[in-house]
């Protein structure tokens, strides 16, 4: 009675969003709101309604900020963020059960790495955008671009990373909350969703489980593991 499409022989890999998922709020929006440069609201609106690509919109948002505020921007981003409950427990479970845990974030290096530093995640398992403070304005850099199979202008392309883990070898699991997770959600075996991503999964008929904290995610993973063991 093994559920079709998943097998205990497949290694699990988790692709976990950062902003609004690992952290309770969206850090990019929080930074922009706090420093409040003229013109940010319409750019955020255009990203949410998908009138601008994420890459285009995020690049434009940070170009509104002067690099002279570098220290203030970084300090605000780090002090403002709250890590969602159960994150440590989920990471521990993944380690104990040989589940590969990747952070696939559309966030920016200057807050993603410091906020994840207390957790024992290998640096090559953290994907995010970069930043360049050498000019007058904050310039976002894009070390993880879309591959030839994605034309969404992701900036940090989650689907390109997901495709490196073939469905035949991996049970692919995505955890996310919003627009940057929509394309990846269509590829994976299971989505843990909240907020806009839940609505999208309903709309597209994708398999999803809603979560509020990572404890909820863990409960489902444990139940599924026990189900698989019972089928051996
Ligand atoms: Mg998010
Ligand atoms: Zn892409």
UniProtKB/TrEMBL annotation:
Coiled-coil region: none
Record bears the keyword Phosphoprotein: no
Gene for this chain: mtnX
Enzyme category, top tier: hydrolase
Cross-referenced Pfam families: HAD
NCBIfam families: DKMTPPase-SF, HAD-SF-IB, PRK09552.1
GO molecular function: 2-hydroxy-3-keto-5-methylthiopentenyl-1-phosphate phosphatase activity
Pathway participation: Amino-acid biosynthesis; L-methionine biosynthesis via salvage pathway; L-methionine from S-methyl-5-thio-alpha-D-ribose 1-phosphate: step 4/6
Highest taxon in the source lineage: Bacteria
Name recorded for this polypeptide: 2-hydroxy-3-keto-5-methylthiopentenyl-1-phosphate phosphatase
Function: Dephosphorylates 2-hydroxy-3-keto-5-methylthiopentenyl-1-phosphate (HK-MTPenyl-1-P) yielding 1,2-dihydroxy-3-keto-5-methylthiopentene (DHK-MTPene).
Enzyme Commission (EC) number: 3.1.3.87
InterPro entries listed in its UniProt record: HAD-like_hydrolase_phosphatase, HAD-like_sf, HAD-SF_hydro_IB_MtnX, HAD_hydro_PyrdxlP_Pase-like, HAD_sf
Annotated keywords: Amino-acid biosynthesis, Hydrolase, Methionine biosynthesis
Reactions catalysed according to its record: 2-hydroxy-5-methylsulfanyl-3-oxopent-1-enyl phosphate + H2O = 1,2-dihydroxy-5-(methylsulfanyl)pent-1-en-3-one + phosphate
Organism for this UniProt entry: Paenibacillus oenotherae
Keyword Hydrolase in record: yes
Family per similarity comment: Belongs to the HAD-like hydrolase superfamily. MtnX family.
């Amino acid at each position: 009675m093994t559920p079709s499409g998943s097998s205990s022989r497949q290694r699990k890999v988790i692709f976990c969003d950062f902003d609004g998922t690992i952290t309770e709020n969206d850090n990019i929006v929080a930074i922009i709101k706090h420093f409040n440069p003229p013109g940010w609201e319409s750019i955020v609106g255009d990203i949410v309604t998908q009138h601008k690509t994420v890459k285009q919109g995020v690049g434009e948002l940070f170009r509104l900020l002067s690099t002279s505020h570098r220290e203030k921007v970084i300090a605000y981003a780090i002090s403002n963020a709250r890590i969602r409950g159960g994150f440590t427990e989920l990471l521990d479970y993944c380690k104990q059960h040989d589940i590969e845990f990747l952070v696939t974030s559309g966030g920016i290096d200057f807050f993603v790495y410091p906020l994840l530093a207390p957790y024992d995640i290998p640096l090559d398992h953290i994907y995010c955008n970069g930043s360049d403070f050498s000019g007058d304005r904050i310039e976002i850099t894009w070390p993880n671009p879309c591959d030839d199979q994605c034309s969404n202008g992701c900036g940090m392309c989650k689907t390109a990373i997901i495709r490196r883990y073939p469905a035949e070898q991996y049970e692919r699991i995505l955890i996310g909350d919003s627009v940057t997770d929509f394309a990846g959600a269509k590829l994976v075996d299971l989505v843990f969703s909240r907020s806009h991503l839940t609505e999208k999964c309903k709309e597209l008929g994708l398999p999803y489980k809603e979560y509020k904290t990572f404890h909820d995610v863990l409960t489902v993973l444990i139940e599924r593991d026990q189900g698989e063991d019972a089928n051996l």
